[in-house]
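Reply to dn_fold:

You asked what the input looked like. This is it:
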Amino acid sequence: MEISWSNLRNWGGESLREDAKNCFYPVIIENEQIIGFGDVLDESEHPESQTVLHGEKYYVYPIDINGVERKWRYARQSVDGIKHLLRVRRKQDGKGFEVEIGKDFGIYRTVWVDPRYDANEYGTKIVKSLVPNCNFDFPKSLYNVYDCIYSVIGKDKNAIVLDFFAGSGTTAHAVLELNKKDDGNRQFILCEQLDYVKCVTVERVKNVIKSNGHGSFNYFELLQWNESFIRQIEQSQNLEALWDIWQKIQSKAHLSYKVDPKTINANASEFKDLSLQDQKRFLLEVLDKNALYVNYSEIDDAEYAVTEEDKRLNHQFYKGEA
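and this is what came back:
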């Protein structure tokens, strides 16, 4: 978040001295630096001006240009805790100082309005410039994603960002841009199951790395059990075989949501109640809705019996310095 400076003195409604008695005290300045804070003034005490010189020190009070006594935005008992957020600014006429606060924290607004969040200008056009021969519908604005990521890990140069729905690769692009800006070492993990991943996502990330002059990434296709399950389902001719397949599906993949047998046959209460053909339809629907990929790529563990054919599905597509 960029630091936005504003006057420590309150203004507008309920900003007068009498609205908060503990908020009227001097900010003590020496050599144009804040060195401390004075005590709250008694109601009967009224400074002669907004900035009062005491020896080599300046006492600055929350008095506006019209001479109205107002209050600081922080009470005396809490102002020491935000001293590091304050700075001194000499007035234009040279007669005294203003005290400003610059917050490096805060709540992001619910609605962001900025030309750089335009998805066409900074989404579609950016993708086309990086991957001119492939189309991708409705990529997000790079700067929309960049600002989202920055709001969370802007100060963490070693963060890892996970995007389960990578799309055109905007998240990776944003992480790489953030690393480029502050020489960070953030990493990204992208997951995508649709076929544009090779044409758009991978090519975009590769080209961003080349243009930035540094960075690397590994690209893998995960071992896919769907095809073998589908072949088994199609070839099965008895209920026992289909039951066995159903058990394997449940054990080898996490079901992100369940398929109710009643969607296949209203009279069924569980998988075993379905007919042979209905069980096949049920199993195929489960596979379709869950897109059951199991990430056993690049492993030699005998427990999973990953074959050489399976391993050939995996790609170490782009690795190393650009």
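The chain has three domains: 4-103, 115-212, 226-290.
Hope that clears it up.
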